[in-house]
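Hey,
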Amino acid sequence: MRLKLSVVFMVLLGSFFAVQAQKIGDITFNKLPQDFQLVPRELTNLAAVPVSGAVTNPAVTGVSIRILRNGALFAYAKPALSASKFSSSFSIRAELAEYDVEVYAFKGVDSSLVVRRKSVVAGDVYYVSGQSNAWIGPIDDLVYQGPWVRSFGLVQANDNYGPYVLADTLWSLPVGKARIGPWAAEIAKQLFESEKIPMAFINSAAGGSYIDFHLILSGNTTPPITGGDIMYYKALKSGTIAKVRGIIFRQGEGEVAYEAGTPNLWTTKFLAIKDKWKKYFPSVERIFLPQLNIYEFRYDRAAVIREDQRRLHAQDPLVKGYATVGTLGFDRIHYTNPGYRSSGQELARIMLKELYGRPLSPQVYSPNIQRAYFNSKSERNKVYLEFEEGQEMVATLDTAVLDEAGVLQKRTLAQNFFYDELNAKSMGPFITKIEVEGRKVILTFNVQYDRNVISYLPDYHRDFDAKTKIFPFAGPFLKNKMGMRAFGFSGFPIVYKDGQFIEYGLFPNPAKDQVTLQWSNFVDGVLDVYSMSGLKIYSQVIEGVKSAQFPVSSWARGNYFVQFTGLDGSKVTKRLALN
């Protein structure tokens, strides 16, 4: 059922549509939408489009405004003139429909068109930033450039470094110099096809930019505008700054190209820029941060940056990432358009689950290691790697690619595991078997493993040689059944499954409906609940979790004993009261 357009007449004290006095014909407008503008929607799925101004010709006796939806008349208003001024606001719906705004001036009974603004839409807004992978790529026939994705501002000089041209404040379709790149275009396409609303992707990425460039963010709106202030200026002038839903930041290739021995400051700087984003763009619900690929640059802290990106995904509820290793069409730094498209589809699925609540499989996420353990102190020739619940792991054991000289280069998955914290010392010679059991990957060694950490994916592409072996890093990789590659990790601690710390918190206590047990580490064992007379009334097997719940709403009021038994037979018992 079509939602009727509501027309509201009001004096607008402030608006996204405020413009510098713009004289068109006999009217000076201070609020007027642009051609191709996307107006951020409210929670009601509506967006307000104000139109206001002042009549400059005394012969003009009235003003009327027509709203067209997909070319058909949808709403009409004739606001009263007060001291030659008028003001109206229209609500348009976020949908795959285009609205035109026409303003007419009356001289007596005769009217004439003053201005027509076309293709105004309502929808959601995202900002994209980072290095060249965030916007580079040829525009082929499959890169979406249609009406349901909007762009703001043009690609700037110096590979988008700027300084920004202050007069560049126009909305556009994502075409020509307003392109947003094949990766961002594919993300936007997937979102609007799923949600049936237009999307604005405002891209401020700059090729080869270090994170220091993006840290130049102070809310500056006077020339020269550069760095992160470019994104701020575009956010302000587009009228979307208060409604942006997410920031997509694909960056770090520059930092992993540093010389060996250079300190890793990327993470500290990212945390600083994240704080700035929270200050200047407080409506942001998620920051999407892809984990870096494996490059040939011989930087010995590259794996540490990837580990920090993984931890941000795991520990910061504002940040979500995914692994870019194994993306199609990798050419050692950039990707083919099919690669950008597949990568965009992967991120779009995560965004649909995170921001739109789509009931997608947990396998839309890259598998992220949860714990690594030996079964016991006497069995150190096997390490168990456990990923999130819902992940179904797949291990590709070997791969082969042709280098630029046509020579076949072979690699094994075993080579991609390391016994140091910098991902430099391979376990390859010591691994005899790699098996998969659901969400677990099991490594078997030909010796007793004497280290207490494990790492995955090399610091850099160590098989690459600029003279004899030129080829991109090709894995092989750990994946899930959806094809999402696992996050690389560094220095992940290995524990004993039979030596777990099993002390737990029990809450709420007293309880009424449900009881939660919380451990400080992953545990395995059996949870039992006994009545005061010693009768077992509940039992649950616990495997590889930090918390567990059980229902008590149907139990009789009174006291009970909750007992957890670890794998080594040790027990922790606590009293539980029900009221």
